Amino acid sequence: MTAVSEVMTHNPIVGTIPGSRNDVLKLMVRHNLTGIPVVKREGNGLAGLITRRDILNSPEEEQLALIIQKDPVRISSDASVEEAAKLMFTTKATHLPVLEDGKLVGIITPTDLLYEVEKRASGVPVEELALSPCVPIYEGTPLVVGFVTFRVSKVNALPVLDAMGHLNGILTDRDIFNKFHINESVAEQEMGLGGEDDNWSWENYRNILRMWYQVSTIDVPLVPVSKIMTTSPTTVFKRTNVSEAARTMRRNDFGQLPVVDSKDRLTAMLYDLDVISILVD
Q1: CA Rg, the chain, in Å?
Q2: Which residue among 178, 233, 269, 278 is least crowded, i.e. fewest CB within 10 A of its CB?
Q3: Which residues contact 240 (CB under 8 A, 6 or more apart)?
């Protein structure tokens, strides 16, 4: 049995309360993280968890204590990877704080489990998985509509179709954010940027904080999604082995892959949470 302690990230980067939203944003940007555990400044006990989506769901809130998940799903270090996969798959939690004798010792995400999937799922085709919702979008759709589609559908990627219904690209939330024309004076003022210590961070903020600002502080370009999407996306077939799909995700740092049939027609979207379900008993 492979234990969580063997695959988790040890001694994770953490946020602290009392603290501010900007404190954790800087940590997440500096270390290229999408979520971190939060501990109490006094006593160092686990206070909660914060992810990028938690921040985006409360764009006006600056106090960290009011944004965090106060009772996040957690797991012990001696639990099995199967238990971790089951927790993630059933709760849709993508970040699990790992505890040992009541103390925070690590964090585990779906990415940490992909190698385990590679070793075990060579005989299982993708089509046998229960796949997450797929939300296609037309290549001529204005980017602002893509922005809204991400927000209301709560997915992280949209397969892009041409006028004949063929897969022509993929649009991720990161793609949209990177193409925003942001009023930097407003952004810097709201984020508290501008000091010498923050000179490094502006481009990194734009790369990691997907759809952070509301439309009032973002000028979304009036262009179709085809101008921004990633063309010729990596895909898998319905008959592709899950182990191969997991390997592709792990090596390319993909959180999702479009699934196509033998005629290259889009049939589904495969997410990392779908892939790790192979470890669930």
Answers
A1: 20
A2: 178
A3: 125, 126
Q: How many residues does the chain have?
A: 281
> Quick check: is 115 in a domain?
no
DSSP 26-57: HHHHHTT-SEEEEEETTT--EEEEEEHHHHHH
Residues 146 and 245 placed together within one structural domain of the fold: yes
Q: Is residue 138 part of a domain?
A: yes
What global pTM score does this model have?
0.77
- Count of the separate structural domains present in the chain: 3
Given a contact cutoff of 8 angstroms between Cβ atoms, the answer to whether 131 and 269 are in contact is: yes
Q: What is the pLDDT along the chain (281 residues), one digit of tens a residue?
A: 899 999 999 999 999 999 988 788 778 767 777 789 999 887 678 999 998 778 766 767 788 999 999 999 999 999 999 999 999 999 999 999 999 988 999 999 999 999 999 998 878 999 999 788 899 999 999 887 887 787 788 787 899 999 999 999 999 766 664 454 434 444 444 444 444 444 434 444 444 444 444 433 444 556 788 888 889 899 999 999 999 999 999 998 888 999 998 888 899 999 999 999 999 96
Q: What is the DSSP letter of 123?
A: T
DSSP reduced 3-state for 125: strand
